[in-house]
Specification:
Layout (H helix, E strand, L loop, with lengths): L2 H11 L7 E2 H7 L6 H15 L6 E2 L11 H8 L12 H4 L10
Parallel strand pairs: 1-2
Length: 103
């Protein structure tokens, strides 16, 4: 596993309940500011194996990317409130990890 993937996994595992990060934010924090699509790949291929809280990753507009409703339900169960327009207020719910390297 490459270093970027390891960092992405560690970052996502560290997001506490009731908080979210964006795909691009995870990528930048892991050392690849243009790696949002790679974060999607990690989520798709490794969420189950590593028990990743995949539902805490949203897009930069504050919207959930999946349309089946599971992601929204999981976030609401953690106390996240959606605005009328279906967006999450990133000024309230965005997580900024302190320990990027996971040291």
């Amino acid at each position: 596993m490459n270093l970027f993937t390891e960092r992405v996994i560690r970052i996502i595992q560290g997001i506490p309940a009731g908080k979210v990060m964006t795909y691009g934010q995870v990528a930048a924090t892991a050392g690849s500011p243009r790696g949002a699509r790679q974060v999607v790949r990690v989520l798709h291929s490794m969420s189950k194996k590593y028990g990743l809280p995949w539902h805490r990753i949203i897009n930069v507009q504050g919207k959930i990317s999946l349309t089946d409703g599971d992601q929204r339900e999981l976030l609401e169960m953690e106390g996240i409130i959606f605005k009328e327009n279906g967006k999450i207020d990133l000024t309230v719910y965005r997580w900024f990890p302190l320990d990027v390297e996971g040291g």
